[in-house]
């Protein structure tokens, strides 16, 4: 709500517009200051500060409610405890490592293992389980594990339409795209249909190959093939990859121990950017004991660049994906000195044991390289203003 109220301040908009409309004053600003004024004016105008007082009140009400819905939606996802109970027989095909330290309960005389309806566990079952009924059970549980969010989405859709119409647009898509390269929903649809026409023949060919793999496996087990479903895709696309390219993603993990990958990826970035990374020389405040802190310096020790925080292991209520958040941007303070930046990279890998290191899938290696690209982008920024540290349409370039 603070951000919504901040972005709806008419007093700030009047000051920004006074500078923006003064050609002499704008011409005397340096390029970065001038760009900041232009960005602020566009942002505040897009927030509705050019509307009537009554319309602004309505926009602010809608925006505040949308924030509430978003936070509630995220909370529901993060705290969802949906799970299914499956026996060892029902989980046939899963590797032994899947059952290590896994919670279980007896239902009658049968030991049932708890499988959470979350991405990592669901993906393992969808890939390895030979029992189609098991795959379907897990897929349905994963796809419907936050029923509370349906009503939230429905309300958000109505509020977005109301907001768009306050700005004079027919739909929310029209409102959003008006500020982006595509400009109109029709342009987006045209692009999607063009891509679909080009990709459909390849998709149909690949789908036929996956159907053939499932049919062969089902009939070999003496069952009747009855079609290909959503819960089949991960299993048979993995088989196709292994058959066609002799690639077993589980075996590839053996080459990607987390500590080794992290060391090499940091080396890649520091060599490319002329930096060096060392463990923090002093104890920094962290939000969990497992968080590791590092200092980033110019390679020749001529200047301290900033800090990187690595929060790599799973824990209850933690964000599940690999992502980076700038804790502090490299901006110039009021006294003219540059504040050193800090970036935090979060992941949810299983913690290593005395005998088993953390092994990364190939896709997680890619995500880790990508995320650290964002971290170093924040660290290396020379912008005066935090809003100008990276153009929105350039945000993914450095991490590629």
The largest β sheet comes out as: 5 strands, mixed
- Spatial order of the strands forming the largest sheet: 4-5-6-8-7
Distance between the termini: 34 Å
CATH topology of the largest domain: Collagenase (Catalytic Domain)
Describe the overall structure.
By secondary structure, this protein is α+β, with helices and mostly antiparallel strands. It folds into 4 domains: 2-76 and 149-176, no CATH class; 81-143, no CATH class; 185-247, no CATH class; 255-394, Collagenase (Catalytic Domain). Helices cover 50% and strands 13% of the residues. The protein has helices spanning 2-6, 10-20, 23-28, 31-49, 53-78, 119-128, 132-143, 148-166, 172-177, 185-220, 233-245, 249-252, 258-273, 362-380; strands spanning 83-87, 104-107, 110-116, 275-279, 292-298, 304-313, 323-328, 342-349. A hairpin with a 2-residue loop joins strand 2 (104-107) and strand 3 (110-116). Helix 13 (258-273) packs parallel to helix 14. It is globular, with a radius of gyration of 26 Å. 15% of the residues are buried.
Keywords, separated by commas or semicolons:
4 domains, 13% strand, 400 residues, 8 strands, alpha+beta, 14 helices, 50% helix
